[in-house]
Design a protein that fits this description.
heterodimer, A: mainly alpha, Four Helix Bundle (Hemerythrin (Met), subunit A), 2 domains, 8 helices, B: mainly alpha, 3 domains, 19 helices, globular
C-alpha cells in the first residue's frame, strides 16, 4: 500500500492520460462531418466558396505535426497531474491548451484554434496565475493529497476512463470523406445571429450577470 | 589571505556550457573575423547592407508577381488574394509565370527556381526571412532608441562601435550578452525561470507569421489573422508573469503582477478599438482590410469618420500599455522595482525579453498601420498609378516604390515605432493606480461610446453622401496638417540645433 501511495500521482496521471487520449481521438474523429448523416447547414443565399479551404501543409508534414503536438498535449497533461507546484501546473495547462489549439489549426478550424488561444491560453490562464499569485501565503504553493481524496479521484478517473472507453468502442465513427471544409468567420457570424441567436443571447446575458456579481462581490464595503 | 567565504554557493569556472557555449564561441569567432573589416569600411558596409536589403526585397517582389500573374492567367477561378506561399506551384507554372511577366527565362534561371516549387522549401525560406527580420528590427530599434533618447536629453548616444554613429552597438551588446554567465538564482524555480523568456519571445515571432507586409507578403493568409495576432500578444504576458514568479524575488513578483493587471485591463479597449475597422470593412482578414484603403490617404480608415479617428488614438494608447512602454512601463519601472520582472535575468535570457518586447512593438504598430493607416499603400491613390504607369518591369518598380508595397508598410511601422520611442523619452511614468484608473474610468467608457457611435454612423449615414464626405475630407485635412506640422517642427529643430542641443550635438549631428 505504501508503495502504491508513493506512486499515486503517477497512477492518476496514467488514467488521465488514457482519458485524454480517448478525448483527443474522439475530437479528431468527429471533426470530419459525414455528409449523409449530418447535412451541413447552409445559410440561405450564401454560396459556399469552392476553394474555401485547402490544406496548408502536405499530408506527411501534417501527420508529423499532429504526432508532435498530440504528444506535447499528452505530456503536458501528465505534467499537470504530476506537478505539485501550482504555477508549474498552470504552465503545463498552458501547453495543453496551446497544443490543442495547434491541433485545431491543423484540422483547418482556424477560428476555433484562434479563439482557443485568445480565450483559454491568453485570458483564462493568466487570470488563473494571477489569482494564485494574489491569494497564496507561502512562496511556493504545493498540493498534497490526503488518501481519501486520492481514492475519490481514482474512482472518478476510473469511471471516466471506462465511460470513454465504452463510448469509443461502441460508437460508429464517421469516416473521413477526403478534404475537410473549414467554416469561415462570416458563416460563423451569420449562424450566431440567425439560427443560434437565442443561445447566443442567453450566454451573453449569463456573462453579464456574472460580471455584475463579480463587481458586487469585489466592491468596497 | 586565503579565499574569502561568500554567502552564495561558489560557481564553476566555466561560465557557459552546452548549446549556449557553442553559440557564444561561434559569435566570438565571427566577431573576431568581422571586426577589422567593419572597422576599416563602416560606411560602405552600411550602404551595401541597405542596398542588398532593397535588392533582395525587389527580387522577392518580382517572384511574387510571376506566381501571381501565372495563377491569374491560368485559372480564372483564382482571383481572390492567394499568397505566393499558399499557391500550388509547379516548375512549368513558374516558367509560364516568368513568360507572362515578360522577363527572359534562360535555362540557368529555371534551375535556380527549381527548389521553389516545393512548398516546404518556400515555407522554410519565408520562415527564415521572418526570423531574420525579427532579429534585425530589435537590434536597430534599440540602437535608434538610444540615439533618440540621447538627442532628447542633449547628449549623443552610442558613438563608437562600428564607426558611423555607433551603428553596430547593438550587435556588440548581443555578443556581450551571449558571453555572460548563465545565471539562475539559487532559490528560483529553475524550470520556469529558464522557460519564461521563451514563452515571452516565441508568441511575438508567431504573430509575424500572420501579419501581412503587403498583398502577397504574408506567411499564412488566415481569415482570422486579427484574432490570432491578438491571442499571441496576450500569451506574451504569461511569459512575463512566469519570469516574475520564478525569480523568487519581491520586485519581480510586483512587476509581474502589475503587468498582469495592466494587460488584462488594456486588452479590452484595445480589442474593441480593433473591432471598428473590422466593422467598417466587414472582414477579419488583414489583407482585405489593407486593400480597401488603396485609394489615396483620404480612403484610410482612420479618416473615414470621427469614430474611427478616435478609435485609432485609443488603440495606440492601449497598444503602448500592452507593450509595457512608457508612460505605462510599470512592470519594469527601475526607480521602484530595480527592473521589475527581469531583475534576476542576465545574458541571453534577458536579451530574449527585449527581442520579444521590440518585436511586439513592431507588431502593434503593424496592426495600427494595417487597420487604420492605409496598410501598405502610399498616400497617393492607386488609380493614379493605373492611369500613368504601364505593366512593364520599370513601371511596376515605380508602382512598388511610390504607390504600394511592403516598403511603405515598413516605413509607416517605423514611424509609429519612432513615436513610441519619442513618447517614452518625453513623458514621465504614471502610477499603477493611475494606469488602471485611466483604463477603466476613461478609456473603456470612451471606447464603448465610440463603438456604439460607429455602429450607428455606419448604419444611418449613407456612404459618399454629404455628411460622410464632409467628415472624411475634414479629417483627412486635419491628419495631413498634423503630419506637415510635425515635419516642419522637425525641420525647425534641425535648423536651430545649436540652441536646442548645444555644440556637442552640433558637432556630431549628421550634415554638420
Amino acid at each position: 500500500m505504501k508503495t502504491l501511495m508513493r506512486y499515486d500521482k503517477t497512477i492518476l496521471a496514467g488514467l488521465l492520460l488514457a482519458a485524454m487520449a480517448c478525448c483527443s481521438a474522439s475530437a479528431v474523429a468527429q471533426d470530419y462531418p459525414d455528409p449523409k448523416e449530418r447535412p451541413e447547414r447552409v445559410v440561405e443565399g450564401e454560396a459556399v466558396p469552392q476553394d474555401a479551404y485547402r490544406s496548408e501543409v502536405t499530408p506527411v508534414v501534417e501527420s508529423v505535426l499532429f504526432y508532435i503536438f498530440g504528444g506535447a498535449l499528452l505530456l503536458s497533461a501528465v505534467g499537470l497531474c504530476i506537478c505539485r507546484d501550482v504555477v508549474r501546473m498552470a504552465t503545463c495547462l498552458f501547453f495543453t491548451l496551446g497544443s490543442a489549439a495547434v491541433l485545431y489549426l491543423l484540422l483547418g478550424a482556424f477560428f476555433l484554434g484562434a479563439i482557443q488561444l485568445i480565450v483559454y491560453a491568453g485570458g483564462t490562464l493568466i487570470l488563473l496565475v494571477f489569482g494564485v499569485m494574489l491569494t497564496n501565503k507561502s512562496p511556493w504553493v504545493r498540493f498534497d493529497c490526503k488518501p481519501a481524496e486520492m481514492i475519490a479521484a481514482a474512482g472518478v478517473a476510473i469511471v471516466l476512463f471506462f465511460g470513454l472507453a465504452t463510448m469509443l468502442t461502441t460508437t460508429e465513427w464517421a469516416q473521413s470523406t477526403g478534404e475537410a471544409r473549414s467554416t469561415t468567420v462570416a458563416q460563423f457570424g451569420k449562424a450566431l445571429l440567425t439560427t443560434y441567436l437565442v443561445p447566443f443571447e442567453v450566454a451573453s446575458v449569463m456573462l453579464l450577470v456574472v460580471m455584475i456579481a463579480a463587481a458586487y462581490m469585489a466592491r468596497q464595503e | 589571505m586565503t579565499q574569502m567565504s561568500v554567502p552564495w554557493r561558489p560557481r564553476g569556472k566555466v561560465r557557459y556550457t552546452g548549446l549556449s557555449g557553442l553559440i557564444a564561441g561561434f559569435a566570438r569567432a565571427i566577431y573576431g573575423m568581422a571586426a577589422p573589416v567593419v572597422r576599416a569600411f563602416p560606411g560602405s558596409i552600411l550602404l551595401g547592407a541597405i542596398f542588398t536589403v532593397i535588392l533582395v526585397g525587389w527580387a522577392h517582389f518580382l517572384l511574387f508577381e510571376f506566381a501571381d500573374n501565372h495563377l491569374i492567367g491560368a485559372d480564372s477561378n483564382i482571383s481572390a488574394v492567394r499568397g505566393f506561399l499558399g499557391a500550388e506551384l509547379t516548375l512549368a507554372e513558374i516558367e509560364n509565370g516568368l513568360a507572362v511577366a515578360g522577363a527572359p527565362a534562360p535555362g540557368v534561371l529555371q534551375y535556380a527556381f527549381y527548389p521553389i516549387q516545393f512548398r516546404i522549401v518556400r515555407d522554410l525560406l519565408s520562415a527564415g526571412g521572418i526570423l531574420g527580420f525579427i532579429s534585425v528590427i530589435p537590434l536597430y530599434t534599440i540602437w535608434w532608441e538610444r540615439k533618440v533618447a540621447g538627442r532628447i536629453q542633449s547628449r549623443t548616444g552610442p558613438m563608437r562601435v562600428g564607426g558611423w554613429h555607433g551603428w553596430s552597438q547593438s550587435m556588440a551588446d548581443g555578443i556581450k550578452l551571449i558571453n555572460k554567465e548563465d545565471f539562475v538564482p539559487d532559490h528560483a524555480d529553475g524550470v520556469l525561470f529558464r522557460l519564461a523568456p521563451y514563452v515571452a519571445f516565441v508568441p511575438a515571432i508567431l504573430a509575424f507569421f500572420a501579419l501581412p507586409f503587403g498583398t502577397y507578403w504574408v506567411f499564412r493568409e488566415l481569415d482570422v489573422a486579427l484574432v490570432f495576432i491578438l491571442a499571441m500578444l496576450g500569451i506574451e504576458v504569461l511569459g512575463v508573469i512566469l519570469a516574475g514568479w520564478a525569480s523568487n524575488n519581491k520586485w519581480s513578483v510586483y512587476g509581474a503582477m502589475r503587468e498582469a493587471c495592466q494587460m488584462v485591463s488594456y486588452e479590452i479597449p484595445m480589442g474593441m478599438a480593433l473591432l471598428i475597422p473590422v466593422m467598417a470593412v466587414g472582414t477579419l482578414s488583414m489583407t482585405e482590410i489593407g486593400n480597401v484603403q488603396g485609394d489615396g490617404w483620404t480612403s484610410w480608415i482612420v479618416f473615414r469618420n470621427p469614430f474611427t479617428f478616435a478609435a485609432a488614438v485609443v488603440y495606440y494608447v492601449a497598444a503602448l500599455a500592452s507593450c509595457k512602454r512608457a508612460p505605462f512601463d510599470l512592470p519594469e519601472s527601475e526607480s521602484e522595482l530595480v527592473s521589475g520582472f527581469h531583475t534576476e535575468y542576465s545574458g541571453f535570457r534577458w536579451s530574449l525579453f527585449f527581442f520579444g518586447e521590440y518585436a511586439a512593438m513592431f507588431v502593434v504598430s503593424g496592426l495600427c498601420v494595417i487597420l487604420f493607416l492605409g496598410a501598405w499603400h502610399s498616400p497617393l491613390p492607386m488609380s493614379l498609378a493605373d492611369r500613368f504607369l504601364g505593366d512593364d518591369l520599370l513601371s511596376r518598380a515605380a508602382k512598388g516604390l511610390f504607390f504600394s508595397g511592403p516598403l511603405w508598410f515598413v516605413l509607416k511601422c517605423v514611424w509609429l515605432l519612432y513615436v513610441q520611442i519619442w513618447i517614452r523619452w518625453t513623458l514621465p511614468r504614471i502610477r499603477i493606480d493611475q494606469v488602471l484608473y485611466a483604463c477603466i474610468q476613461y478609456m473603456l467608457p470612451l471606447m464603448m461610446v465610440i463603438l456604439l457611435g460607429h455602429t450607428l454612423y455606419e448604419l444611418l449615414v449613407p456612404v459618399h453622401g454629404i455628411v460622410w464626405t464632409f467628415f472624411n475630407i475634414a479629417l483627412s485635412v486635419i491628419g495631413g496638417a498634423v503630419m506637415l506640422f510635425l515635419v516642419s517642427i522637425a525641420c525647425y529643430g534641425y535648423l536651430n540645433r545649436v540652441k536646442l542641443v548645444g555644440w556637442l550635438g552640433v558637432e556630431t549631428l549628421p550634415g554638420s
